Every structure is written in structure tokens, then in C-alpha cells.
Amino acid sequence: MLGGTFDPVHFGHLRSAVEVREQLQLDELRLIPSARPPHRELPGASASQRLAMVQLAAGEGSGLQVDDCELRRERPSYTVDTLESLRAELGSDAALFMVLGWDAFCGLPNWHRWDELLRLAHIVVLQRPDYDLDVPEVLKDLLAARSVDDPARLAQASHGYILCLSQTPLAISATHIRGLIASGASPRFLLPDAVLDYIETEGLYRP
Ligand code: ATP
């Protein structure tokens, strides 16, 4: 799973998702938009608009799935709950991977029940060339104990390892895209044309 606010979804998410899926030979990779991000300010587009954009982006041929499980939930969208429901759906033997960028990984200790995540899934960390963050001490210990270099090691277990992956580095963020639109500049070629058309039709992110 690759969760996020996707406000809006962009090529940084999509290219990473395709590369992770291929490098780890995953059966499927689900993009999971979060409903009410517990530790972030409210997103600019509504939940249904963000879902619509992710569905447009992951259209035919991308090899990516969209899962709206967090949007159908009444409670705040905690990743640990999502992993528990995926685990229940897929069974205890399936290898489950939680994919997230380096910035999100560095913020992990603020997540709800974060110390349970590795009991449910592996963690795959993507590089983010637009973020220069130091990893918190508690995560250094976790990395020392749990990180592996060989993707094949992850496939041998259903959960419990951390892999830092080198994918094509794309310094694209939703914040930057929202800023461009708010200032009247074009974000074209940072995100799929279908998503940009939708943003324009819906009048999203304008000041
Ligand atoms: P914002 O700028 O609004 O914070 P974002 O661009 O970081 O948004 P999110 O929806 O918050 O996008 O990201 C979802 C996940 O995708 C996070 O784990 C994030 O680290 C990761 N991610 C986002 N952009 C990239 C990128 N360019 N390269 C690699 N990972 C990314």
C-alpha cells in the first residue's frame, strides 16, 4: 500500500509506485487516499475530489489499484487500522508492504500505534530528493535492527523488515503543485494531464 493525502496525486507518487511494484514484484500496489489525516492540516481538495484524482491517475494500464477503504471509514484514518484490515483480507501468510517517502518515515514516531506497524507489514522507504531530514534517534535504532539491503529478504517473510529503496528521484510535491496553481503558474508535466484537467474543471487550489 501507498497511502497519502494525494492533494493532488502527482508523478512523484505514481512513478515511485510503479517502480516499487516492479522492483519487489508485487501482485498489486494499492494507492490509498486518507480521509482525515490525523496529524496534518486539512487538505485543499475534498476527500471525494482527491479520490477522483487518484482514480484518474491510476487509470487503465498503470498496473496500480485504488482502494478507498479509508474514505469509507467513520473514524480518523490511521494506517495501523488499514494494515489490520488488509491483513484480515489477505491472510497471515501474505507479504504486506507499507510504502512511504523519507519525509513520512522520519515522522513515523508521531503516528498512532506506530510501533505495531512492523508486526503487520514490511516498511519500504522511498528517497525524497526535495526533503533533507535527519532521522530521529528512535528510528535509527529501528533501522539498525530491522533494515535489510536485499529485496528478496522481504519476500521471505510476511512483515517485519525495512527496505530503503532507490527509485527514480523526482523532486515533486503536492505542496509545490498547490503553490504553483495558487500563484497562477502551470504545474503541467508534474502530474498526469487528466488530473490537471480535473483540477481546472473543479477550480481547485486557486487563491
Ligand atoms: P504534501 O506536499 O501536501 O505534503 P506530498 O507530495 O508529500 O504532499 P502525500 O500525499 O503527502 O504527498 O504523500 C504520500 C506518500 O508519498 C508519502 O509517504 C510521501 O512521502 C510519498 N511521496 C510524495 N511525493 C513523493 C516523491 N516525489 N517521491 C517519493 N515519495 C513521495
UniProtKB/TrEMBL annotation:
<keyword id="KW-0520">NAD</keyword>
<dbReference type="InterPro" id="IPR005248">
    <property type="entry name" value="NadD/NMNAT"/>
</dbReference>
<dbReference type="Pfam" id="PF01467">
    <property type="entry name" value="CTP_transf_like"/>
</dbReference>
<keyword id="KW-0547">Nucleotide-binding</keyword>
<comment type="function">
    <text>Catalyzes the reversible adenylation of nicotinate mononucleotide (NaMN) to nicotinic acid adenine dinucleotide (NaAD).</text>
</comment>
<feature type="domain" description="Cytidyltransferase-like">
    <location>
        <begin position="1"/>
        <end position="178"/>
    </location>
</feature>
<keyword id="KW-0808">Transferase</keyword>
<keyword id="KW-0067">ATP-binding</keyword>
<protein>
    <recommendedName>
        <fullName>Probable nicotinate-nucleotide adenylyltransferase</fullName>
        <ecNumber>2.7.7.18</ecNumber>
    </recommendedName>
</protein>
<keyword id="KW-0548">Nucleotidyltransferase</keyword>
<comment type="pathway">
    <text>Cofactor biosynthesis; NAD(+) biosynthesis; deamido-NAD(+) from nicotinate D-ribonucleotide: step 1/1.</text>
</comment>
<dbReference type="InterPro" id="IPR004821">
    <property type="entry name" value="Cyt_trans-like"/>
</dbReference>
<dbReference type="GO" id="GO:0016779">
    <property type="term" value="F:nucleotidyltransferase activity"/>
</dbReference>
<dbReference type="InterPro" id="IPR014729">
    <property type="entry name" value="Rossmann-like_a/b/a_fold"/>
</dbReference>
<comment type="similarity">
    <text>Belongs to the NadD family.</text>
</comment>
<keyword id="KW-0662">Pyridine nucleotide biosynthesis</keyword>
